[in-house]
User: What shape does this take?
Amino acid sequence: MSYIIEGKTGDWEVVIGLEIHAQIISQSKLFSGAATAFGAGPNTQVSLVDAAMPGMLPVINEECVRQAVKTGLGLKAKINLHSVFERKNYFYADLPQGYQISQYAEPVVGEGTVVLDMPDGGSREIGIERLHMEQDAGKSMHDQDPKRTFVDLNRSGVALMEIVSKPDLRTPEEAGIYLRKVRSIVRYLGTCDGNMEEGSMRADVNVSVRKTGETELRTRTEIKNLNSVRFVMKAIEHEAQRQVQAYDNGEEVVQETRLYDSQKGETRSMRSKEFAHDYRYFPDPDLLPVELTEDEVEAIRASLPELPDETKQRLMDDFGLTPYDAGVLVAEKETVAFFEAVVEECGDPKLAANWVINQMPRELKRSGKSIENSPVSPQNFGKLLNFVLNDTVSTSAANTVIGIMYVDGDDPVAIIKDKGLEQITDSGEIEAAVDQVIAGNPDQVADFQGGNEKAIGWFVGQVMKSTGGKANPKMVNELLRTKLKG
Amino acid sequence: MSLDKNDVKKIAFLARIRVPEEALEPLAGELSNIIGWVEQLSEVETEGVAPMTSVADMTWPRRADTVSDGDCAADVLANATDPEIPSGDANVGGFYTVPKVVE
Amino acid sequence: MSTPAPTELTDLTITAAADGMAKGDFSSEELTQAHLGAMEIAAGLNAFITPTPDLALERAKESDARRATGDAQGPMDGIPIAVKDLFCTDGVLTTAGSHILDGFKPPYESTVTTNLRDAGAVMLGKTNLDEFAMGSANVTSYYGPVKNPWKGNDGKDLVPGGSSGGSAAAVAARIALGATGTDTGGSIRQPASFSGIVGLKPTYGRCSRWGIVAFASSLDQAGPLTRSVADAAHMLGAMAGHDPKDSTSAPIPVPDFAAGLDAGVKGLKVGIPKEYTLDGMPPEIEALWTQGMDWLKDQGCECVEVSLPHTKYALPAYYIVAPAEASSNLARYDGVRYGLSLDGDSLDEMYEATRGEGFGDEVRRRVLIGTYVLSAGYYDAYYIKAQRVRTLIADDFRKVFEDVDVLLTPTAPSAAFAIGEKMDDPVAMYLNDVFTVPASMAGLPAISVPAGLDANGLPLGLHLIAKPFDEETLLRVAQSLEDAAGFTARPGATP
Assistant: This one.
């Protein structure tokens, strides 16, 4: 897959790296016992430690470390048994300590790999540079008052993992696939809920461009705080174009932090925040280095659930699914769980895959539901597929039935009975309908018999219409051919 | 290494401490003096010596992941300069405020 | 029996006062009243920033009530003490000696003062100190300098040492039976030496730092200032203990520090570090040091010369590490959540105005030094270099402690000096801590014991350093020094 920007001075390729900030699932904060839940009143989930009161001290939440290690293992990465929390010093309204406690020189997780499933069925390996833990900042609200900015520290101190990729991504689409894949992995692991709308996952994107054929990296810019896959892709497109234009116009690209404006569809410089930054990292003297044992790490490894790549392989091996179908199914762990339960009921994995990939999302969207609160159980879903398999209903009737199931959640048996959608497989009944259609349309009969074989479709349609869509289309087809050729 | 007026100005901004213009020059002298004095450390051979991270010969204490703190907005806001308490009752929450930040 | 006169009560040691209360000779309320009276009389010392007489009397009465029902808590119950105003105290103004904490009343109590309170101690008030504990003379406080109750022959007002200057002055002037201090590079031991009292800095990790306004986290340690070694043992016993809220607090039990005090020192090996002999050190300090060796030898110790080759570099390394940590620890004073706040048109203007106004000269100096040594391009050359040197300093101690039980040195290179001296030369001021800083850099327990007077009639201390968490040996040797020195001189100043 190539993504080339044609500039005035030649062709350019894009080099992209992502820093994903993922909120670690934990009950309490990284360094204090305050809760992490969403939606509480301002500053009610804040301890004196989070508010940086004089003399307050951090104590590491061991679960957060375990979650970070788990994520590292899920990214097939090196786990560092010795890691160090440092202070990143800067002043800002949402940073009460005047420093963020983060890992810097010695992160808990080192290099790893993520495999991307490309739409063409191939795959791409993207390198992970590192994963480190850090505390989140509070939240500033600038629009509440004409003169003051309001600060809520409920998020201050919540544990984050920053997952840094190598600059291995080459297209906006790849960046999107990568972000989705990492999101999928952390959700399988249960280490982050991946909810980008609530901000529990966001990304900073590093973008640079270079002439095709160049091997050195040019100056990169960082676009901060993107909270959807779409914005990540759009921001990269805009920023790459901007850089190409700058070079084409003989300008330089400045290393800086930029913001993506989704309304205007452009990125703009945050130079105000950039001025004279010097974070003065040094090991936090209030904390001791995090020391893990091989045994601990192995115990965490042993507890890992099946991850998307493994599930995908299993679906291909056990059910004969195509890589593409398997890839689509495993993207969300809820989807694959639903799929497997459907297969258990109906026993035809290919049909199940087809319906879970196509009908399910369509009906969920139509009924405004999500898979987590699906009104249709996988058992009822599978039961309906069984009716298709044993010709109790036609595919088109089944589509009607599933539409109703997603609205009122009823058992398919009841719906089929209630709506009289059972397929007509009684050959006498079908024959009568066929005879009636042939008798009533001599012109079309002549047309067909004159050699227009395609006209058979029209006859099938007429018979289906007259039987309210319930006739078995295969039987209709066969009978028509016999009688018309007769 | 000696610091000049501009260095002091830069450091003072990093530390967010306003230093009156007339104090910059004398401060540069004082700081240079101290820095000059600590530079005697360069006499010490430290090749291969690990920097100390903690004098405490201990392993990191681990806190269990339970909610054991917070829910004390009134205490958190008690000493705040100009808090905004929407309901008038700090116990149910309120904001710190700072001069308006323009992003 | 009749109630003893107030001056008799204020002249007691903690040990004797506990005894007196146990026997019913006087109540904690009477003892506390006597000290509150002394506090008023000696107000001119400026030892206290915030006296808390009402709170003190309330707690004294509670102590008496406990005693009446047989629930007295031990040797600290009912004992009036002073608390350095670096410890956060619930609902009581806590300033750290700084303008920037104007009006700050913490809604919480530090672990050490909570422990003392649980042991029954009665807080008389919050004592003056160098701003954010940065100083060696208690002249950098926003609340003005503290006067040493001792005066030299020339009658000048002297510094009490610092940074725990108010605590040292209060104990020396018989305003409190004991006081809490904190020691980062000598802030308990040096003022103890200048004020003729005992000052103990425990092993790093022995006392919780939770709720103590931080100066330099890897060095700060709380400890007692008292008028006897036994008192220090009792008070430390009440202050110390593991605290899960401080990650650097040692998870080890607190021994009965007073139990072995009189066991004697026969057979102990005392190291005399040769590097502690300084050019230009006053001869009377050298003489006192030699005297100390003789006292210990007389009691059966063996004194041997040892070498701590990196001693000379401890002070400059300290003046990189401590300001670096301080520059970060003091970033939270930003005018938003507590303390002084000045207006500004923007966030940065507000920060700069508040911090420019709120910090005094010495704090500003150290925050700027600390910011500088951590900044891009200088971090390795200064901060990392200093931490490497620190490793060497700790290794020096580890090696000598394979052979000796304690080290004996002078506490400070001079006796108390006049208020106003050394003000124009920060480095000269820093040299006050030349003997105390190395033990701080290695996290070791150390104590200053008053041992004699100089020609000007001012007290001088001797300094002992022990192995990590071996406060028991440290105190045992200190006790024998105290016994031998028979230091009975007391300040005569009436300010």
